[in-house]
Predict the 3D structure of the following.
Amino acid sequence: MNAVDTSGYFFKKLFKCIKKAINNVFRGINKVLGDLAPIAAIAIGVFLPGAQFLAGLGNFGAAVVSGFVAGGVASGSLKGATVGAFSAALFYGVGSAFDGVSGADSFGTLAHAGKTLAHGVAGGVMSVLNGGKFGHGFVSAGFTQLAAPGINRFGVRGSRFSPKRVFAAALVGGTSSALTGGKFANGAVTGAFSRAFNDEMHWRDRVNLALAQAKDKLQQLSSWAVKNEKQIFSTMQAIGGAGQALFGAGLCSTAVGCAFGAPIIAHGLSNYSQGVGFTDTNVVQEGYKAIFGNDVGNSIYYSVDIASSIGAGSAKTLSSYGRTLQNSGEILFYSSDYVRTIATPLGTMSAANDTYVIGKGLVNDYGN
């Protein structure tokens, strides 16, 4: 029993040593930075919340830790660090209370007035805890939030964190503090805190929520696509086959062109027939395989398939060339006017067919 410290002396001494060590670290950093300490504190408020090692704490935890470090650097003391953590939590709480409230980020609304007042009170409390006047902190944080709808226009709205907006808030806070008899540096830190741990952190929440929702939608879409894979690819094959048939018909608008167009029509109709379920197999593909063997037959089929799709997609360009030949009196392979009329749907339809060929046909025949 003699070895048991029932008074807790050991832990009190250990805690005292830790406090002293942290205090010395902040004092040393503050001393080295000198007049640059407030700027460093603002920079910490901007960049530290997004650090990867704080991700597991969530936005609130990241704000509190960042406020602790920034407050310690700005003041050079453990007390200042504690006030910084408390202030970050307070500003974050104000943001949470007004997050999603209609008009909270718009000039001239009752919600914006309420948010401005709440920010002013939080800034005043922060100032008093740091040994300053309530009024100076109130003005710095209040004016910063009053200007928030304008500050929102800096950078890309909705980005996860904008240094431009935080530094703009620091400028507003510092200027308003100086104009009312306070210190510019103190007001700048208060303004930066009010922006970084409120608006910016909650924008990050909204962006993360939107990303999570988008990811969920993509997963649902992916599951649906896997479940309906057969119907999707069959539809693409049918649409693409119709486009090929139309392209072949365009070639057949002249006798010479029909020598190329007729096989493409047959190719397209075979794809369409299989796609809509008229036939279980692709007649043209099976014909190539019967004549040339499976591997060579498949290669010929897919080569013609993709080439005819590319040709259909290029119909508008080819029709312009055809018009030039027509004007010069040379033999036409197809009617440029006919193909020009259907060029846009041909391009869309042929793209659908290529998706089928690459995504399904080639995988089935060559994937194993």
